[in-house]
Amino acid sequence: MTRDLFNLTASLSFALIALSPTLTEAQDHRPGVAEFQAAHPGGARALDGHVWYPTEAEGDEKLLRGSAVWRDITGHLDARIAPGVFPVVMISHGMYGNSVNQAWLAKRLAAEGVISILPNHPGTTSFGRDPDQARQLWRRATDLSVSFDQLLTDPRFADHMDPTRVAATGHSLGGYTVMAAAGARHDAAHFAAGCVDAPERVDCDVLDGWKVGHNADDLEMLQSDRSDPRIRTVIPLDLGGAQTFDPASLQAIDMPVLVLGSGRQDMLNQDVESRALAAALPDALVTHVEIDDAGHFDFMGACVEGGYEILKREEPGDEIVCVKGAEERVAQHDRIFALILDHLHQTGVMP
After folding, report:
1. Can you give the pTM of this predicted structure?
2. How many angstroms separate the CA atoms of 327 and 125, rounded?
3. Is the CB of residue 256 less than 8 Å from the CB of residue 347?
4. What is the mean pLDDT of residues 135-146?
5. Is 329 exposed, middle or buried, given 0-12, 13-18 or 19+ CB atoms closer than 10 A?
6. In the 3-class helix/strand/coil scheme, how is the chain assigned residue by residue?
C-alpha cells in the first residue's frame, strides 16, 4: 500500500459525481440541493459545500456535476425546502475528496426527510490541496460545526433544521473527522509510537508528509477537544486514522457509533482501522459491520459502465476506484444505506 493509493482519486477531480415545530414524520420527498458558504470565527478558514434536503419540487432533476467516469448526480437545484422540521446529518469527505463524494448518500437521505451538510475541507479537497491547511488537521471536525452553525442562520433552512437530532458520518479521513467531532482526541505520542513499529502504514506517511503536529503550537490545537455536543451518533465509513486517537478518549465516548468497514480490504488494513476502532470503543455503544466484498471506494459514487477501462487508459493505476464500481457498487450502496438508515432510526435521529 502506498501513499499514491490514498491520493489517486484526486487526479479524477472527484467530478462524481415549517408546518409544525416538531420533527416531521418520515415520508417520501424529492431531493433538493444547494450550495452554501461559511467561515470559521475571525475568517481564518473559508468554507463552501453542498446541502441536500427534502423538497416538494416537481419536474426533472438537474445535473449537479458530471464526469466521463462517475455517474451523474442530479437533484432539484435551489428548490424550496419542503414544509417541516428535519433531522440533520453532517457528512465529511475523505482525503483529497470533495462535497460530492457522498452525494449519492445525501440524495437518498433527502428523499427520506433528512437534511445533509457536506462541506469541503480546505487543504484536503480535490481542488484545494494546500499543505498549510492540511497541516491543521484539527480544523476538519470544526468545519462540520461551523457549517451547521451557518446553515442554522440561513433563511432557506434555519426553521427547518432540528438541532436536537443530529448525526455525522464520514468516509476514510472523513471517518477520522467525525470521530473527532464525537470526542475522540488526537494523541500525537501514541500515534508516533505506532508508526515506529509500522512505518509503512499509509496514515504514518500521510500525516508526516503534512507535518501534522510537528510544532508545539500545532500540538496543543491538534490534541484539543473538537467535539460538537449536538451530535447524537456518528458513523465512520471505512475510516483512516484510527491509530491517531487517545485510547482513553475512545473509551469515554458516550454516544452510539456504527463502524462500517470494507470486507475486501483493498485500501486500508481493517486490523489497524475499523476493527481497531470498534474494539477500542465502549462495547455497549458500538456496532461494527464489515460489509462482505465491499471495497474502500464503494462508499463513494458509482462509476459508469466502462469507467474502469477509461481510467486504465487515461490514468493508469487509478482504475482501482472503479473495481466493481458500476452495478456491483449500486448494490453495495443499497446495503450501506440500509445499515445507516436503520441506525438513524434506532438512535432516534430519525423518527
Report:
1. 0.91
2. 27
3. yes
4. 97
5. buried
6. CCHHHHHHHHHHCCCCCCCCCCECCCCCCEEEEEEEEEECHHHCCEEEEEEEEEECCCCCCEEEECCCCECCEEEEECCCECCCEEEEEEEECCCCECCCCCHHHHHHHHHCCCEEEEECCCCCECCCCCHHHHHCCCHHHHHHHHHHHHHCCCCCCHHHEEEEEEEEEEECHHHHHHHHHHCCCECHHHHHHHHHHCCCCHHHHHHHHCCCCCCHHHHHHHCCCCCCCCEEEEEEECCCCHHHECHHHHHCCCCCEEEEEECCCCCCCCCCCHHHHHHHCCCCCEEEEEECCCCHHHHCCCECCCHHHHHHHHCCCHHHHHCCCCHHHHHHHHHHHHHHHHHHHHCCCCC
What pLDDT score does 131 carry? 87
pLDDT digits (tens, 9 = 90+) for 279-326: 999 999 999 999 999 999 999 999 998 999 998 999 898 898 899 999
